[in-house]
Amino acid sequence: MYKVVLLGEFHKSGKELLKKNKINLVEILDNDSDYLKQALVDCDGIGIRTSNLTEEILSSCLNLKIVARHGVGYDNVDIDYLNQKRIPLAVTGKSNAVSVAEHVITLFLSISRRIIDSHNLVKNGDFSKKNLIKKTVEIFNKKILIIGYGRIGKEVAKRLSSFDCKILIYDPYVENKITDISPHTFVDLQTGLKEADFITIHIPLSVDTTNLISKSEFSLMKNDAILINTSRGGIVNEEDLKMALDEEKILGAGLDVFSKEPPDINDTILSAKNIIFTPHNSALTIECRSRMSIETAENILNHLQNKTNVDNIVNKHVL
Ligand code: NAD
After folding, report:
1. Is the pTM of this model over 0.85?
2. Could you give the number of structural domains in the chain?
């Protein structure tokens, strides 16, 4: 009987699937590395949410055959170690693109229509002072820059197309530049940043993408630009973002992800002007939690049953 450890809270749907397939299922909520080293020593598969799977922890696993991330980002797993040991790392590629895309649209509209400020006016008895909210804008006829045209970027483009806006895409790794979304244009980053009214980021965090959007990029943006980051903290330099907002270099921003999660309560980004925060929950709809839990379980089961879903494996070369 295979032993699978789920690290963190998983929706019951995935757990039921594992049990139905006669897996010895162990659930762990404790992140203490000494405890994990002991608990994982004989497991065949690990399903993981946000805890860190370091080389120190992974090297204590003597039977490990697969690690499956609940989500698509995997910067909390030491993939170099897995590569070295030829252990595949799976992600839930199909599950969360739609949920994140809907969250992006929510943030675009909440910021452009100043929903939080408007709500507070009504709540505070200032209904008649609606003219205090000076600038609300539409998406109609605007240019939207999507940075990263992968699973999520494509779902964002699909949803935006009904707003009658022009979609610009920056993704140097896309080979087929003909997409089903029209009208749209592939651009270089500088052109996109200069022309866009709305910007949304959907790329992985890496050495290349850390601080991709910093002071010099903000200086290219329109004063009316609205920037959303739901990808990973660290891609947008938060100090530079605060400066751009406070000096009204850009109009607004939305962050679902932070360079440090959770951010310190005194973190200066939290006091920036016209910004909306969400606690890294853009993929945490009820529907998506269930889909991600099932897909994590399927990724583990398929691999243990020699039916690996290669599409979901990040380090395909180890198979
Ligand atoms: P994906 O792998 O399908 O797409 C990523 C795209 O980024 C690819 O098309 C790739 O070519 C492009 N890319 C890579 N480096 C680039 C660069 N330097 N410049 C421009 N484009 C670049 O991934 P996805 O499923 O669309 O997810 C994107 C990111 O969103 C993930 O890496 C993850 O960190 C993040 N994410 C966040 C949440 C959340 O809860 N906030 C949920 C899911 C995913």
Report:
1. yes
2. 2
Query: Is there a single domain that holds both residue 123 and residue 269?
Result: yes
Which structural domain, as residue segments, surrounds residue 7? 3-95+286-318
Q: Tell which one of 49, 69, 72 to mutate to probe ligand 1, the residue whose CB is within 8 A of the most ligand atoms.
A: 72
Cα 185 to Cα 22: distance, rounded to the nearest angstrom: 50
**Measured CA distances, 8 to 49, 91, 111 (Å):** 6, 15, 32
CB-based contact 272:249 (threshold 8 Å): no
> What are 205's two structure tokens?
């965090």
Query: Residue 285: which residues within 8 A CB-CB, separation 6 or more?
Result: 99, 102
Whether 119 is a known active-site residue: answer no
Whether the per-residue pLDDT at 236 is higher than 70: the answer is yes
pLDDT in tens, 106-115: 999 999 999 9
Q: Which residue has the least CA distance to atom 44 on ligand 1?
A: 72
Q: What's 17's domain CATH number?
A: 3.40.50.720
- Round to whole Å and give the CA distance between 296 and 102: 22
Shortest-distance Cα residue to atom 32 of ligand 1: 204
**Minimum-distance ligand 1 atom for the alpha carbon of 283:** 40
Backbone φ and ψ of 167, nearest 5°:
-100, 125
How far apart CA 46 and CA 53 sit, in angstroms, is 10
- Residue 149: CB partners within 8 Å, gap ≥ 6? 157, 169, 171, 174, 179, 202
